[in-house]
Design brief:
- This protein is mostly beta strands and about 240 residues long.
- The protein has one domain (about 5-210).
- Helix content is about 15%, strand content about 35%.
- Strands 1, 2, 3, 4, 5, 6, 7, 8, 9 and 10 form a ten-stranded antiparallel beta sheet that branches.
- A hairpin with a 2-residue loop joins strand 4 and strand 5 (about 100-115).
- The chain is globular.
- The termini are far apart.
């Protein structure tokens, strides 16, 4: 029976992430808001692999994030993002994490698995960018694997699914989609997955993103913008 416990814990952690991944992909395929529009059928990965997403993946605001079912705040910072010269859908990431006073370095990868276009494009408030000449808009979906420095304290591995919203401008350049930051439903650079401490088998949910956080019901009470509750577990200074 004792030998079964680690196996059960691994299966439970895999199941938790699997549920998140399935729910997240379903939310992308069946959006509830106008901001996150209906996707065209079909994965256009090969068409878009020529683009370098390094600048698009760079957060334009501070990431919001939590770890664990008690929504303890985690701060994620990327210090470098580089596209692989050998594998066109692979990106190398370095950065730091901070939970409480504990700061850790990490390095890892993002592997883009899907490029999807929207059925209809959006142009910002009052169609401000209707004449901007956009060629396409959509999302890139991938998987990430980040490993913290094993020589530091309370370290482990982050793994999950990520999504970034983009558009291609009239010059054929791919850009971070910030056209509707005014919207209550706006979000970008979304990450949903788990953190597993080295040497352990049980994982913790760990999600982060810009403007909003995936599956943060119970934490985010905001309508117009992200608003954390409770004001504890690292969120005490959020409005300072």
């Amino acid at each position: 029976m004792k030998n079964l416990i680690p196996i059960i814990l691994v299966l439970l952690s895999i199941n938790v992430f699997g549920q998140q991944k399935t729910k997240w992909l379903n939310s992308l395929e069946n959006p509830k808001s106008r901001m996150f529009q209906k996707l065209k059928k079909g994965n256009l990965l090969n068409r878009y692999l020529k683009y370098d997403l390094s600048d698009v993946l760079v957060p334009k605001t501070d990431f919001l994030g939590f770890i664990g079912t008690d929504f303890r705040r985690i701060k994620i910072n990327y210090s470098s993002i580089k596209k692989s010269t050998n594998t066109s859908n692979l990106y190398f990431i370095t950065g730091t994490t901070k939970v409480g006073d504990n700061i850790c370095d990490f390095e890892g990868t993002i592997t883009i698995e899907q490029f999807r276009e929207f059925e209809n494009m959006h142009y910002g408030i009052d169609d401000k960018y209707a004449d901007a000449g956009f060629k396409a808009q959509g999302i890139a979906i991938g998987k990430y694997l980040f490993n913290e420095n094993p020589e530091q304290k309370f370290v482990g591995t982050f793994e999950g699914i990520m999504t970034v919203w983009w558009y291609v401008n009239k010059n054929g350049e791919i850009k971070f989609d910030d056209l509707e930051t005014y919207s209550d439903n706006y979000k970008n650079n979304q990450y949903a997955g788990n953190w597993t401490q080295y040497g352990k088998t049980k994982s913790k949910i760990c999600n982060w993103g810009e403007y909003r956080i995936p599956f943060s019901e119970g934490l985010d009470e905001g309508t117009g913008e992200f608003s954390p509750n409770p004001y504890s577990k690292g969120w005490e200074d959020f409005y300072k």
